[in-house]
Amino acid sequence: MEIKLSEEELDRLCECIALRENKGVYLIEGKLGSGKTALVKQFVKHLGSDASVTSPTYVLCNHYGNGIYHYDIYHKKVAELMALGILEEFEKEGWHFVEWGGDDLARTLDVVMIPYKRLKIEMEGDFRKYIFK
């Protein structure tokens, strides 16, 4: 599925994600400044929270309540994530948004049978293209 939206229209995408019955892990890829954190911020707002959403670059994971988890795994190896217990975190009920979740993590999730969705964000001027795989 592909959808092209402006930042003002992002709530439409959040509505679709919120309606998914199985919630789960979202591996989000996109260039720096493409809107990965903006998506999570809008999702948190969509679910009625006024939590301050920032990229968890230095803390690895932020939990915003309502079952929303936000990870930034830039430059992290899968072995590091496993040692830190991140895969076990993915088993918690809720939405797990993983910035920079790439092929290595996807293969590992396949092996341990943790379902996930991949979401690539591409910049197109004032719009973003959201590509689900």
From TrEMBL:
Keyword Repeat: no
SUPFAM superfamilies from the UniProt entry: P-loop containing nucleoside triphosphate hydrolases
UniProt keyword annotations, A-Z: ATP-binding, Cytoplasm, Magnesium, Metal-binding, Nucleotide-binding, Transferase, tRNA processing
Localization annotation: Cytoplasm
GO cellular component: cytoplasm
Pfam families named among the record's database cross-references: TsaE
Sample GO molecular function, one term: metal ion binding
InterPro entries: P-loop_NTPase (IPR027417), T6A_TsaE (IPR003442)
Alphabetical GO biological process terms: tRNA threonylcarbamoyladenosine modification
Family designation: Belongs to the TsaE family.
Protein name: tRNA threonylcarbamoyladenosine biosynthesis protein TsaE
